[in-house]
From TrEMBL:
Superkingdom classification of source: Eukaryota
An example Gene Ontology molecular-function term: RNA binding
Keyword Ribonucleoprotein found: no
An example Gene Ontology biological process: RNA modification
PPR repeat placement: 50-84
Signal peptide start and end residues: none
A Pfam family that the UniProt record links to this protein: PPR
Descriptive protein name: Pentatricopeptide repeat-containing protein
Organism name: Kingdonia uniflora
PROSITE patterns for this protein: PPR (PS51375)
Record keywords, A-Z: Repeat
Length: 124
């Protein structure tokens, strides 16, 4: 697979600290269905994950029927203090067409509650 050769080139030449390049690798592996390699790239501590990194890995797991893992990653993202959690949640629904499950909705309500914005969660 050409993608794995590119990944190898990235590692050998120490380009694996670049966020956009790692995001492209995560996206490629997720689209190929190789979630183990996508997760290896994502778990690399050589770069700082951004909203796109989180969105790609969560969506990748969700698209391949790994809902529990996607929710677990979403919870991990929230624990890391990613302020763009709501944007990521919205993009998984609107961009990737993933129907939200109850656990994901609960995570969003929890995130909004912690931010003092329960009114945005529709909880009264």
């Amino acid at each position: 697979m050409a993608g794995k050769q590119i990944h190898g080139f990235v590692i050998i030449n120490e380009f694996n600290h670049q966020v956009s390049l790692n995001n492209a690798l995560i996206d490629m592996y997720c689209k190929c269905g190789d979630l183990s390699y996508a997760k290896r790239v994502f778990d690399n501590d050589a770069y700082c994950k951004d909203e796109i990194s989180w969105s790609l890995i969560i969506a990748g797991y969700g698209l391949h029927g790994k809902g529990n893992e996607a929710v677990s990653l979403f919870n991990g993202m929230l624990q890391m203090g990613i302020k763009e959690g709501l944007n990521i949640y919205n993009s998984t629904v609107t961009v990737y067409g993933i129907s939200p499950i109850m656990e994901a909705c609960a995570c969003v309500a929890d995130m909004l509650g912690r931010a003092g914005q329960l009114d945005r969660a529709g909880v009264h």
